[in-house]
Amino acid sequence: MTKEECFYLGRIVSKFSFKGEVLIKLDTDEPESYLEMESVFVNYDNNLVPFFIEKSSLQKSNLLRVKFEDVESEEDAEDLLKCDIYLPLALLPKLNEDQFYFHEVIGFTVEDINYGTVGILTGINDTTSQALFEIEKNGKQILIPMNDEFLHKMDKENKTVFVKTPEGLIDLYL
Fold this sequence. Notes:
With 174 residues, the protein is mainly beta. It folds into 2 domains: 89 residues, RimM (Elongation Factor Tu (Ef-tu), domain 3, Beta Barrel), CATH 2.40.30.60; 71 residues, Roll (SH3 type barrels), CATH 2.30.30. It has 2 helices and 12 strands, in the order E-E-E-E-E-H-E-H-E-E-E-E-E-E. The strands form 2 sheets. The chain has a 6-stranded antiparallel beta barrel. It has a 6-stranded mixed sheet with strand order 10-9-8-7-12-11.
């Protein structure tokens, strides 16, 4: 299994008990969807290693408390700290037609209702308070906030995102 065949689920952020339990900070809006997992892939020394789950429960809102098989001590758990957790893409829940996962839309063409072709979607920056589409046009980067007000329509079949931005926003970048 490679990272390209998987999606990022979260990161092991701390030890929980002396019995080897860990807390995983989940990167999801629906943490309860991941309570019944049998296994995950742990990015350990740049390899995706399968770890089987004995038990898991939610701690607070987006922390998953996990007891992995063969992780029996605090030292074993310590070795896994800061490791990223992945699941196969096939396990992603299906979305409605107007919803999308970030990785799905990379490479899509972005069309503005008023402006026309904006460029190619090269990434999504979700490290800011407002997630941003990162769009490339003629060697320049254009940033468009990802919000319902600007997102007009998604055409997955034709790999196009239609946006309706305020007048002048795109021109700021060109």
